[in-house]
Structures are given as C-alpha cells and as structure tokens.
Description:
Elements: H1 3-15, E1 30-31, E2 38-40, E3 50-58, E4 61-71, E5 77-83, E6 88-94, E7 99-104, H2 111-124, E8 128-130, E9 133-136, E10 140-147, E11 150-157, E12 163-170, E13 173-184, E14 187-195, E15 200-206, H3 209-212
Antiparallel strand pairs: 1-9, 2-8, 3-4, 3-15, 4-5, 5-6, 6-7, 9-10, 10-11, 11-12, 12-13, 13-14, 14-15
Amino acid sequence: xxxxxxxxxxxxxxxxxxxxxxxxxxxxxxxxxxxxxxxxxxxxxxxxxxxxxxxxxxxxxxxxxxxxxxxxxxxxxxxxxxxxxxxxxxxxxxxxxxxxxxxxxxxxxxxxxxxxxxxxxxxxxxxxxxxxxxxxxxxxxxxxxxxxxxxxxxxxxxxxxxxxxxxxxxxxxxxxxxxxxxxxxxxxxxxxxxxxxxxxxxxxxxxxxxxxx
Length: 213
C-alpha cells in the first residue's frame, strides 16, 4: 500500500464524523414465541486460523490485503492485516472488554482509525446474544437482543439454521449490517460489513487451502 493511499485513507476517516444514519425498521416479520434464551455467532469460534482476502472501501479509497483472525481463548481474538505485498498494517488482540494494540503502521496510527477497527471487530466477533424477542418471516428466524442502548437483530436461515445476517443498531439507528455466506456454523465463506451511517464497506473472502500454499 502506498503512503499516499494511507494518508487518503486517514483523511476519509476524519470525514466520517459528520454523517448521520436512519432509524431501523424490521422488514416484513411477525412476532413469535420461542424457547431460545441465547443465540450465538459461531463463525469465529474455532481454534483454527481464519484467513481472508480483505477489501475495504472507505468513501473513494480502496484498500486490499490479507486478514487473519485467530481465537486465542474463549474471550479473546487476535486480528492481523497485511498489504497485498506482505507488509504488516495492523495487529491487535480484542475481547468484549479489552483491546491490545500489538503493532500499527505509523501512517495508520490515528485515534479515529484505531477506534473504527476496534469497534467494528468487537461487534463482528461478539459471540453470545441473550434473546429479548423473537420474530420470523418467510426465510428467517429472527432474534432481537438488547443491551443498554444497543440492539442486534440476528437472522438465521430457516432451511439450514445458519446465521446469515446481523443488523446492529444503537438508539434505534441502524449502524452496521453484517451479512454472511456459509456452509457450516463455525466458518463464514464470505462476509460483507456495511456501515449505514458512514460510506464504509468491508468484504472478506475465504482463502482456500490451495491459495494459501
């Protein structure tokens, strides 16, 4: 990644502070009774490395590289990203309550950049969601989980039971939409992270064993 690209990326993060978002309304779903007390996002629960090609679009800036997520223990993950040329960009350990920055490229060492990555990956790697209400539509079982001013809508495919979407809201404003494509509960083949209040989109695509060798 070129220095000019990194500087442009940092500038775009600063612009993010001045954008608003819309209220969230659950589409075409009806309330239902459910015995579920807790639901989980298990996509990053294995002890194996999760290796993805990563594409980040931040306003008009495009950044690509390799992202590795590794579960260190029941509460903590390590996240590292390198450029397409193998240069380390950032390396951190994160849990629900803690954040340890192991390395960051100097050009990215800005508070707003670190906060953005910390907050997004904390939401992505959140595992357990106590169920407040349950809904369903034609395709999905939907569970609402509330915590303080935050709310999460988790959509599970009725046919295979796989988690396919999480909508994260705060103060009833839609913040982030996570969508997953997967064949099994512990690994997402691809992930699309779309901010609703900022022009930020992060896409992760599985790197196969052939590509890694």
